[in-house]
Amino acid sequence: MHFTIHDTPIVIHIMRLFAWLHIKLTGWQVDDSAMPRSGNYLIIAAPHTSNWDFPIGMSLAIHLRIKAYWIGKHSLFKGPAGPIMRWLGGIPLDRSKANNMVEATIQAYQESDGIAFAIAPEGTRSWSPRWKTGFYHIAKGAKVHIALAYFDFNSKKGGIGKLLTVSGDLEKDMQIIEQFYADINGKNPQNWNKDIRGLNLPKD
Question: Which candidate in 77, 151, 186, 188 could, as Cys together with 92 as Cys, close a disulfide (CB 3.0–4.6 Å)?
Answer without folding.
Answer: 77
